[in-house]
């Protein structure tokens, strides 16, 4: 597997799942190592065959050039279906959440995926959750999500919904959000009320870029995430200590995954180093973990259970 991934992208795949530099002891203790698998390779192979089709790539480039005079990049991807992304396979997701697929029942389970884009990443969670809710600020992406059968909630009002979720996810949204602090507050409020775990992922080192800003036209958030240092490992540490902890989240575990994007004429695929954090809301007053279901024990508190 390793050699296949290296052949496709040329980057040593050892670093797709492991940080290049040493981790702080806090980050090391919470680290969960993911591994490459066939679904990851399949995405890369498909991307490779699309990118080497020069006729298709020429049509695509002309189409994007025309559309970019009117639409944002995200809207263009929503209209055309270009720019497909891959973060994890179903089995990588199941092993990160310690889901036992034999005993798992998806009926009556709700997942909410915030900033879901075209739903590519969301789709890998669908078999575990019968009801998929999503938010998006791009109207074209919202259309894509509806066409996939997902229930799209208002992107600015989702935290006021009455629905209780079994899991809330925000993949690669925090550094794209106009107010990362408000997003973390809403995540805390709804996950605490739902008594569920949260997954937040983002590309590290952090680089903010706001494409959809209801507060104005700028590409900067109202407040930057409080991370210091230059490396992926530095930012993992500061995300745990300076960002999630003050937002009343305990990091249960985290993993490194390659965030892959379909290629173009220049590259067969694009790779970004993602950090995926599994979070548990803490009680605001004393910092203790919020009560879980009666069946959850110390040893399995990092997994999503049938009962949740
Ligand atoms: C980097 S993309 C991530 C898409 C997908 N979650 C993934 O991991 O591939 C960020 C997405 O968040 C959407 N977005 C930005 N701000 C948002 C907000 N406040 N609420 C909902 N979606 C938002 C953008 O339109 C974009 O599709």
Automatic annotation (TrEMBL):
User: Which portions of the sequence form the region Disordered?
Assistant: 288-308
In this chain, composition skew of type Polar residues spans: 290-308
Record-level Gene Ontology MF annotations: protein-L-histidine N-pros-methyltransferase activity
Q: Fetch the InterPro entries from UniProt.
A: METL9, SAM-dependent_MTases_sf
Q: Which domain of life is it from?
A: Eukaryota
Question: Which Pfam family, any one of them, does this sequence belong to?
Answer: DREV
PANTHER family the UniProt entry points to: DREV PROTEIN, PROTEIN-L-HISTIDINE N-PROS-METHYLTRANSFERASE
- Protein name, as recorded: DREV methyltransferase
Show the taxonomic lineage. Answer: Eukaryota, Metazoa, Ecdysozoa, Nematoda, Chromadorea
């Amino acid at each position: 597997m390793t050699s296949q991934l290296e052949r496709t992208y040329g980057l040593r795949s050892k670093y797709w799942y492991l940080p290049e530099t040493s981790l702080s002891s806090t980050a090391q203790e919470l680290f969960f190592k993911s591994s490459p698998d066939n679904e990851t390779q399949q995405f890369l192979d498909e991307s490779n065959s699309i990118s080497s089709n020069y006729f298709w790539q020429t049509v695509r480039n002309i189409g994007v050039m025309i559309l970019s005079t009117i639409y944002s990049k995200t809207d263009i991807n929503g209209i055309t279906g270009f720019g497909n992304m891959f973060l994890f396979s179903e089995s990588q997701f199941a092993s990160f959440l310690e889901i036992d697929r034999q005993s798992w029942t998806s009926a009556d389970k709700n997942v909410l995926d915030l900033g879901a884009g075209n739903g590519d990443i969301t789709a890998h969670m669908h078999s575990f959750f019968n009801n998929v809710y999503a938010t998006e600020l791009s109207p074209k992406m919202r259309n894509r999500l509806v066409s996939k059968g997902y229930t799209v909630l208002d992107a600015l009002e989702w935290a006021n919904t009455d629905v209780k979720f079994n899991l809330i996810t925000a993949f690669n949204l925090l550094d794209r959000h106009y107010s990362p602090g408000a997003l973390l507050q809403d995540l805390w409020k709804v996950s605490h009320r739902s008594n569920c775990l949260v997954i937040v992922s983002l590309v590290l080192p952090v680089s903010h870029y706001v494409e959809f800003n209801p507060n104005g036209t700028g590409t900067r958030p109202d407040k930057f995430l409080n991370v210091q240092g230059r490396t992926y490992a530095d930012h993992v540490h500061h995300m745990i200590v300076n960002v999630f902890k003050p937002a009343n989240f305990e990091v249960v575990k985290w993993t490194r995954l390659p965030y892959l994007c379909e290629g173009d004429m220049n590259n067969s695929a694009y790779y970004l180093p993602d950090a995926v954090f599994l979070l548990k809301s803490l009680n605001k007053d004393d910092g203790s973990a919020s009560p879980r279901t009666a069946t959850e024990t110390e040893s399995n508190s990092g997994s999503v259970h049938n009962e949740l």
